[in-house]
Amino acid sequence: xxxxxxxxxxxxxxxxxxxxxxxxxxxxxxxxxxxxxxxxxxxxxxxxxxxxxxxxxxxxxxxxxxxxxxxxxxxxxxxxxxxxxxxxxxxxxxxxxxxxxxxxxxxxxxxxxxxxxxxxxxxxxxxxxxxxxxxxxxxxxxxxxxxxxxxxxxxxxxxxxxxxxxxxxxxxxxxxxxxxxxxxxxxxxxxxxxxxxxxxxxxxxxxxxxxxxxxxxxxxxxxxxxxxxxxxxxxxxxxxxxxxxxxxxxxxxxxxxxxxxxxxxxxxxxxxxxxxxxxxxxxxxxxxxxxxxxxxxxxxxxxxxxxxxxxxxxxxxxxxxxxxxxxxxxxxxxxxxxxxxxxxxxxxxxxxxxxxxxxxxxxxxxxxxxxxxxxxxxxxxxxxxxxxxxxxxxxxxxxxxxxxxxxxxxxxxxxxxxxxxxxxxxxxxxxxxxxxxxxxxxxxxxxxxxxxxxxxxxxxxxxxxxxxxxxxxxxxxxxxxxxxxxxxxxxxxxxxxxxxxxxxxxxxxxxxxxxxxxxxxxxxxxxxxxxxxxxxxxxxxxxxxxxxxxxxxxxxxxxxxxxxxxxxxxxxxxxxxxxxxxxxxxxxxxxxxxxxxxxxxxxxxxxxxxxxxxxxxxxxxxxxxxxxxxxxxxxxxxxxxxxxxxxxxxxxxxxxxxxxxxxxxxxxxxxxxxxxxxxxxxxxxxxxxxx
Length: 691
What we know:
- Keywords: Membrane, Transmembrane, Transmembrane helix.
- The chain is an alpha/beta fold.
- It is 20% helix and 35% strand.
- The protein contains twelve helices and 40 strands.
- The strands form eleven sheets. It has an eight-stranded mixed beta sheet. The chain has a five-stranded parallel beta sheet with strand order 4-3-7-8-35, with helices on both faces.
- The chain is elongated and about 155 Å long.
- The relative contact order is 0.14.
């Protein structure tokens, strides 16, 4: 029970002061002259003023509030090293028991630095977690903050001060004094580069806790395949030249050999993820003769910003004799030697559009084209009746790389092009608009070249279910054979037209090895903390994949069918770093979070980060273990203003905060008691002066 005196004046305070002043003026001469009854008159004035002031005695019923203590447990990834997590849990249990034995302590356990939900967090932010968890606690109620951590905290306030309104910060640090670790650091790698362009990646190997000049073996991999091995000196800056090999992500991984007795090998690896960007693709289009669909290919390729097109149309073959003088021809000569001998390897794709062998190109150039395909080039033959004639390209050395031989027949009948079962799964024809109906929702064609013994993959069929579009691989290169010249009907909108843009663009980019159009591919991408896995295949089914976390932990994931030839899965990536996905034949990589996460920049346990703040708050910092055994300090409740730490103890600033439950009021000059006191004094004054 708390007692206090307050006032409830019956008249405004200025009037009360005026009455008191006037009364003193009237009484003062009596006191100065020491007349009879002067002191009684003063007492009567005091009683009158007290009655007007309304003194009230208050009796407050208050309930003391408990002192809040925050026990912060570091759950970051570095705490999983070298048995730190087990020691931390043992210290947590011991402290919870000791705080539980103290009265008026509200212990709040805060787990921080690990995951938000199930998503990984880059860095250990314990102070932010404390501020969030104690948002409902008044500063004067906070008795202490105790952190169980390895000391690698990334949100320490700077400059060091007492961050908890005068409450002490105590830190118990896991780990050992003799720790050592090796770290791979990649310095500012390029994010983008042109395919085929030379770049340089700078990297260093850092030894912490055990400086050494002994050479270190570094293995360098590209997309999971070993690329090179180097021997470097710890601490030195090294440069590794690279050449971007393909479009899309190029993941260069640098891994240093393990250091004896080091804490972890997770940070021995670092990855540089470089997006390969292809320069404009070079396409050579040769039209054998003018025809209705000639401009379809030209317009399509010219509209593609990623394509540089060189187009020739043979208007006047050598056998044509029309008497026109050479000096009156307005078109340039066909530079056959330059295109098909000197610069042929500079093209990403060669297209023959309704081309017949009429002596324009010597046989040796067709040998060059066949060699160009086998060494990685791409060839597309968009044929018409020319392919069934005696002058067909099949009669040239290109027959060795073309996937189907003509029978010599041209099928002249209406038909609806259809995507084959294989084509439903092929990225060139999968999901073409209108292909999901029977008949397909696109216009008919009226001419097709008959072939026999087709090789490769037939992804579209036409009249009499004969092959219409055939794809094949030859050596390192690719070949496509389109057995009709009437795709222009789709472009002209005949009977509603058809998806000619999607079909021809995909076809051209598949030939030029666009990564997104590979038939067999395994891809992994990171969307925030979600790992997305896509499998593209020509098979009807696919097996599970193995997902390997940065720490080396493995798990098996089953993919669900998403579309014909496409399978998909998603999972929450609970670690920061480079994830690897394998299915036995293919590999894919995805990097979750920053390339060099703060959590593994330095994994040695340390006092250095927290010690200045602990000292500024008057707290205690020590190792959790001493001589290999758990060593937990004593907990001592202390009054504010006293020292909060000692050699083997930690202090808790006990709060004086309380909650008001009720108030009893006792007016001192009200009712009969006040009236009697006032009348008694006045009567005494009258009596004294009347004598």
